[in-house]
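Section 5: illustrative case.
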């Protein structure tokens, strides 16, 4: 969607547009993070949008910030500041400026995705040795920290070891990042389990207020874009799991129905209406089951 009309005549300075979010700076130096309805898969922005996706992601992030407030500070300042244009209400957050840590902080409690691929190749994931014989979807003996480098747009994040990121950000910061990521994961997994949902893995981003060493939770957090959510009553290791996240989109793109070859280097096709509708329903169910709130009550 074109948001230029919302910025015209305002004091907002466009800084960056990512796969899903657009970032602006306000006149007083705060940041405005706007979640769009865009959806990405396999490092492509698809030609389809998922209605209400930006609002669902923002609502979930705000709710998780509330749940985690006693564990870790976050960058959210306001959801209804007057600086937010009316058309962005419900999908925009006014945030404090942070110096970002250049690491994707990933925690895994179950083996799947790129972690499964690494395990099958080496028996380890980011330097974490795992037991033999694990299957797709198996619960790990303990949650593990599996950081990744932040790739430039169109490139893949690369799973790396704790030692590798320590060489970049320092051993003390790397250790704090690992410990805090695992604490957030364990807390969120416990909350999700109480709602009948398994948190298979999640990707977090952290920054620091300039002049401070305190790690601050940033960007989105624990949404279907950055996490794998599985219905607990459908969990069955040894196969792909039903999910409340965008794995449904990935699966369709890799199916014969899409006609797309991932190795071709070409843009994936637009999603058919039934896939768009089903994806929105999965995101919506994740929000309402986790929070116990009706999305109809969210502003915007």
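Designed sequence:
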């Amino acid at each position: 969607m074109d948001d230029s009309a919302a910025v015209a005549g305002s004091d907002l300075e466009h800084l960056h547009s990512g796969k899903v979010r657009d970032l602006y700076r306000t006149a007083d130096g705060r940041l405005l993070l706007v979640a769009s309805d865009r959806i990405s898969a396999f490092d492509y922005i698809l030609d389809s949008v998922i209605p209400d996706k930006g609002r669902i992601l923002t609502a979930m992030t705000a709710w998780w910030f509330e749940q985690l407030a006693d564990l870790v500070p976050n960058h959210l300042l306001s959801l209804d500041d007057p600086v937010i244009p009316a058309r962005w209400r419900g999908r925009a957050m006014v945030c404090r400026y942070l110096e970002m840590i250049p690491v994707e902080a990933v925690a895994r409690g179950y083996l799947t995705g790129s972690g499964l691929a690494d395990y099958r190749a080496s028996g380890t994931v980011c330097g974490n040795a795992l037991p033999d014989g694990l299957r797709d979807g198996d619960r790990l003996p303990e949650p593990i920290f599996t950081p990744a480098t932040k790739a430039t747009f169109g490139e893949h994040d690369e799973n790396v070891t704790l030692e590798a990121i320590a060489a970049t950000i320092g051993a003390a910061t790397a250790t704090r990042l690992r410990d805090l990521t695992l604490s957030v994961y364990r807390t969120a997994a416990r909350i999700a389990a109480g709602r009948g949902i398994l948190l298979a893995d999640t990707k977090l981003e952290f920054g620091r207020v300039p002049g401070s060493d305190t790690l601050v939770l940033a960007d989105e957090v624990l949404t279907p874009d950055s996490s794998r959510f599985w219905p607990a009553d459908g969990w069955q290791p040894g196969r792909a799991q039903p999910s409340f996240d965008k794995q449904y989109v990935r699966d369709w793109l890799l199916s014969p129905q899409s006609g797309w070859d991932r190795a071709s280097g070409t843009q994936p096709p637009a999603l058919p209406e039934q896939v768009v509708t089903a994806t929105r329903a999965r995101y919506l169910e994740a929000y309402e089951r986790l929070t116990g709130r009706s999305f109809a009550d969210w502003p915007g």
